[in-house]
C-alpha cells in the first residue's frame, strides 16, 4: 500500500501554533503536515523525575494537541535518542520535507546538523528558520563583521536594525490549519515518558504587571515582573509579538529582551563560554570552592537575609527575582570565592526559565569573568541591597518566616570577604 506523502514539523523551543515561522512555512508547503515533538533522552536522562520544566512542556504539548483535535489532527509524540527516532520515522512515513526552527546552543547545533545530514541523505528536504530571536547569528555585528562583546553598542545596533524593519513581522498560521495531516496519534501519559508531575508550577505570564517596570523592577516584594521568562524559554509566546508590544509600551522591558538576544549571540559566537571564562585572563583565579559553604548557599542558610530569601524562593518555586539573582550570584563568587560554574549548574537545575545563554552570561557577568561584566572589584553588599530594595523586609519575611525570631549570624563578614575577593582576583588575573 502506497504511503501518503507528508511534511513533518519538528517542535522544540517553540511550543505554540500561533506566529510560529517554521510551522507557517511547513503548512504553506505541498504536503499535509504532521506536527512532531521528541522527548530527547540525551536531555531527559540528566533530569529528576519530577522536573517542573518537563511538566510544563507536557502541558504545553497537551494544549497544542487540544487545539489540533478541533480540526481533526493531533501531535505525534516520541521519546528516545533523537537520531534513533528519526531513523524510525523515515521508515514509518513517506517524508518529503522536514521543517523546524533554529536553536543556537552548542548541543542543538550539533544535533540539528547530524539530523539534517541524515535526512538529506534520505532525499528529504530540510528547511529551518529563525523564530527564537529577532536578530540571529551575524545579523548584528560591528562594521568589521565581528560580533559585539559589549551590550550598549549591540543594543544600539539592534534598535537601529529593528527600526528599519518597522516592526517584527508576525505570522498568521491559523488560515493554514486545514493543511495539518488528519490523524489521531495517541497522546501519552506523563508517566509513559518516565516522569511524574511536579508540585512546582510555571505561572501564567501577565504583561499588565510590568506597566511601571522601570520604577518597580528592582523591588522583589512588589511582584511586578511579567513571569514571561519560562514562556520565552520554551516558546509558548512569540518573541516578535512581545518585542513589538514592548517597543510600543515599555522601552525598559525591551532592553531586557535585547539582553537576552545579546547573550544568545555571545553563546553562538563564543561557545567556549559554556565551560570557560569569556575573559581567559581570569583563568588564574584560585577559587576556594568549599563544599560546606556551597551547601549553605544552596539551602539559603548563609545568614544574609537577601541571599537566603532568594535561594529559598528558587528552591520552592523555580523562580527568583532578577535583582536578587544578582545579589546571590555575587555573594557566591565574591564572598565565598566559589567558581561561577557551581552556581550556574545549580541554577540550571532549579530555574524554570533556565536558558543556557542567559544563565552562563549572567553568571559570568556577576563573577566578572564574562563579556561586558561587572568589574571584579565590584562586590555587592547584601545588607545594603536589602536596605535599598526591601527596606521593610516584606520579601525577606515571605521566604524566611523565622526572620523576626532572631536570624542567624552571617557566615562571613562582608568587609573581610570583599577584601579577600579583591585580593584573590588581583592575584589571579593573568597579565
UniProtKB/TrEMBL annotation:
UniProt KW keywords: Chromophore, FAD, Flavoprotein, Lyase
GO MF annotation list: deoxyribodipyrimidine photo-lyase activity; DNA binding; FAD binding
Superkingdom classification of source: Bacteria
InterPro entries, sorted: Crypto/Photolyase_FAD-like_sf (IPR036134), Crypto/Photolyase_N_sf (IPR036155), Cryptochr/Photolyase_FAD-bd (IPR005101), Cryptochrome/DNA_photolyase_1 (IPR002081), DNA_photolyase_1_CS_C (IPR018394), DNA_photolyase_N (IPR006050), Rossmann-like_a/b/a_fold (IPR014729)
Cofactor dependency: (6R)-5,10-methylene-5,6,7,8-tetrahydrofolate; FAD
Domain Photolyase/cryptochrome alpha/beta positions: 5-134
Site entry: Electron transfer via tryptophanyl radical: 287, 340, 363
Binding locations of FAD: 213, 225-229, 253, 256-263
Cofactor mode of binding and number, as noted: Binds 1 FAD per subunit.
Gene Ontology terms describing biological process: nucleobase-containing compound metabolic process; response to light stimulus; response to stress
Similarity section: Belongs to the DNA photolyase family.
Protein name: Deoxyribodipyrimidine photolyase
Amino acid at each position: 500500500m502506497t504511503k501518503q506523502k507528508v511534511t513533518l514539523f519538528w517542535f522544540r523551543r517553540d511550543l505554540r501554533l500561533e506566529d510560529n515561522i517554521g510551522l507557517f512555512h511547513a503548512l504553506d508547503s505541498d504536503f499535509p503536515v504532521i506536527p512532531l515533538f521528541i522527548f530527547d533522552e540525551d536531555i531527559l536522562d540528566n533530569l529528576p523525575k519530577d522536573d517542573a520544566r518537563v511538566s510544563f512542556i507536557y502541558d504545553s504539548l497537551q494544549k497544542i494537541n487540544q487545539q489540533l483535535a478541533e480540526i481533526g489532527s493531533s501531535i505525534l509524540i516520541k521519546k528516545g535518542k533523537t537520531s534513533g527516532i528519526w531513523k524510525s520515522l523515515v521508515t514509518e512515513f513517506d517524508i518529503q520535507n522536514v521543517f523546524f526552527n533554529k536553536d543556537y546552543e552548542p548541543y542543538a547545533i550539533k544535533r540539528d546538523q547530524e539530523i539534517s545530514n541524515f535526512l538529506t541523505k534520505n532525499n528529504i528536504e530540510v528547511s529551518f528558520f529563525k523564530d527564537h530571536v529577532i536578530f540571529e547569528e551575524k545579523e548584528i555585528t560591528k562594521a568589521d563583521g565581528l560580533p559585539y562583546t559589549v551590550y550598549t553598542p549591540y543594543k544600539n545596533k539592534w534598535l537601529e536594525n529593528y527600526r528599519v524593519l518597522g516592526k517584527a513581522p508576525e505570522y498568521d498560521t491559523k488560515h493554514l490549519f486545514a493543511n495539518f495531516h488528519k490523524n489521531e496519534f495517541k497522546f501519552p501519559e506523563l508517566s509513559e515518558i518516565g516522569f511524574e508531575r511536579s508540585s512546582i508550577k510555571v505561572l501564567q505570564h501577565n504583561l499588565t504587571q510590568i506597566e511601571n517596570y522601570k520604577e518597580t523592577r528592582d523591588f522583589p516584594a512588589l511582584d511586578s515582573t511579567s513571569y514571561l521568562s519560562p514562556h520565552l524559554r520554551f516558546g509558548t509566546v512569540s518573541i516578535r509579538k512581545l518585542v513589538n508590544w514592548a517597543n510600543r509600551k515599555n522601552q525598559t522591558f525591551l532592553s531586557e529582551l535585547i539582553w537576552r538576544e545579546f547573550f544568545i549571540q555571545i553563546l553562538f559566537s563564543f561557545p567556549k563560554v559554556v565551560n570557560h571564562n569569556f575573559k581567559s585572563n581570569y583563568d588564574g583565579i584560585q577559587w576556594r570552592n568549599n563544599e560546606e559553604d556551597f551547601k549553605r548557599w544552596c539551602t539559603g542558610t548563609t545568614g544574609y537575609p537577601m541571599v537566603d530569601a532568594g535561594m529559598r524562593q528558587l528552591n520552592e518555586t523555580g523562580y527568583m527575582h532578577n535583582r536578587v539573582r544578582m545579589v546571590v550570584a555575587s555573594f557566591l563568587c565574591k564572598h565565598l570565592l566559589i567558581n561561577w560554574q557551581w552556581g550556574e549548574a545549580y541554577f540550571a537545575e532549579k530555574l524554570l526559565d533556565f536558558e543556557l545563554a542567559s544563565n552562563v552570561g549572567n553568571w559570568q557577568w556577576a563573577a566578572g569573568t564574562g563579556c561586558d561584566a561587572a568589574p571584579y572589584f565590584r562586590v555587592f553588599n547584601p545588607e545594603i541591597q536589602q536596605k535599598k530594595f526591601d527596606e521593610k523586609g516584606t520579601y525577606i519575611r515571605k521566604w524566611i518566616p523565622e526572620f523576626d525570631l532572631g536570624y542567624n549570624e552571617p557566615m562571613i563578614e562582608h568587609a573581610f570577604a570583599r577584601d579577600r575577593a579583591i585580593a584573590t582576583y588581583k592575584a589571579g588575573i593573568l597579565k
